[in-house]
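tokens incoming
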């Protein structure tokens, strides 16, 4: 992989990380500033459902934040784009679709087949 491609991925991932961190901060600020009282049980339930949904989204995003940070470290260490399973290069097309991937398409497909077979 060329230095230009690595720089492009670093920029892309850094921007995505900044956006996710800003959204997480906005969510925490928004939830801590809410002092609304809902006398109607339906309104309260709807509000709690929305809040629960938002927290699930943020949980998924926090996992993505960890993956992005690990990927940025891989770029710095020179292991970005190398499959953790087989050691071959991960295709540029796959990295563009999912920059945080750590497996080539063949290894990931095989892993998913194993998960399915084991019922995971």
């Amino acid at each position: 992989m060329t230095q230009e491609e690595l720089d492009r991925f670093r920029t892309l991932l850094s921007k995505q990380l900044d956006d996710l961190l800003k959204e997480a901060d906005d969510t925490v600020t928004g939830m801590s500033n809410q002092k609304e009282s809902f006398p109607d049980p339906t309104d309260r339930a709807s509000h709690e459902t929305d809040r629960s949904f938002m927290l699930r989204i943020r949980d998924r995003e926090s996992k993505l934040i960890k993956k992005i940070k690990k990927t940025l470290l891989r770029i710095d260490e020179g292991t970005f784009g190398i499959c953790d399973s087989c050691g071959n290069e991960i295709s540029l097309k796959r990295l563009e679709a999912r920059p945080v991937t750590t497996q080539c398409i063949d290894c990931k497909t095989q892993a998913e087949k194993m998960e399915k077979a084991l019922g995971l």
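note: The helical segments are 3-33, 41-77, 92-97, 105-118.
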